[in-house]
Design brief:
By secondary structure, this protein is of the alpha/beta class. It is 41% helix and 23% strand. The protein has one domain: Transcription Regulator spoIIAA (2-Layer Sandwich), CATH 3.30.750.24. It has four helices and five strands, in the order ββαβαβαβα. Helix 2 links the parallel strand 3 and strand 4. The mean pLDDT is 94.
Length: 113
């Protein structure tokens, strides 16, 4: 089962949605799927995590690597729709200082501009 759904493309922005929590059982698949997106030269990415209850630290690390690759290529990522638990985790580990976090598509798109 895939961990990422490609939802749509709007201009040069790719919208992806995590289909589940990122845990030890699917971390390798998640990493392969992320690098597949990068190999397609997609560097402006909105990541909807509304279907994820939890993301292990390795998954957060992969998102940070994704953000770095995107920035190195003139793009960025925005995390969208975290639940309350993930919102707290992102804040505690200071990921919200590294990657923009938004709660709706309109604001996520504005962060891309």
């Amino acid at each position: 089962m895939e961990t990422i759904d490609i939802v749509k493309e709007k201009g040069d922005i790719l919208f992806i949605k995590l289909t589940d929590s990122i845990v030890i059982n699917n971390i390798e698949l998640f990493e392969r799927e992320v690098y597949s997106i990068l190999s397609d030269k997609k560097f402006n990415i909105i990541v909807d995590i509304s279907k994820s209850e939890f993301i292990i630290s390795q998954g957060l690390g992969i998102l940070i690597k994704l953000n770095k690759k995107c920035k190195d290529n003139g793009g960025k990522i925005v995390i969208m729709n975290p639940n309350d638990r993930l919102k707290r985790i992102l804040k505690v580990v200071h990921m919200d200082k590294i990657i923009d976090v938004e709660f709706n598509e309109e604001n996520a798109i504005k962060k891309m501009l």
